[in-house]
Amino acid sequence: LRLLPQQRYLQAERAEVSALERKRNILCCLITRILKVEKQLHIDNLVFRVIDACQKGELGPGLQFLSFCCHSVDVLSCVLHLLNQGYLRRQEKRPHVLEY
């Protein structure tokens, strides 16, 4: 029986996946929180507000988290995910406006 050393790249890969899942969860929470308050919002305004909240490290009133870098692609990916899940919807006549 021969023991092989533990493969560190697998641990690093799991940590990266976990970090990406946490980031996606935070972004989805931010998107839903913002739209719950606003009820409807132009997608561009939503992206800017989420990015601003990420930079400031604010999840909402009184809730803080570590600020992190997020890009519009990250936010748009989460918007598409939430649209597919049925949490958000687009207006029929104005598809660039999102509703919660």
From TrEMBL:
Residues 19-96 form the Cullin neddylation domain. Gene3D superfamilies: Winged helix-like DNA-binding domain superfamily/Winged helix DNA-binding domain. InterPro entries: Cullin, Cullin_neddylation_domain, WH-like_DNA-bd_sf, WH_DNA-bd_sf. This is CUL9 protein. The lineage of its organism: Eukaryota, Metazoa, Chordata, Craniata, Vertebrata. The gene is Cul9_2.
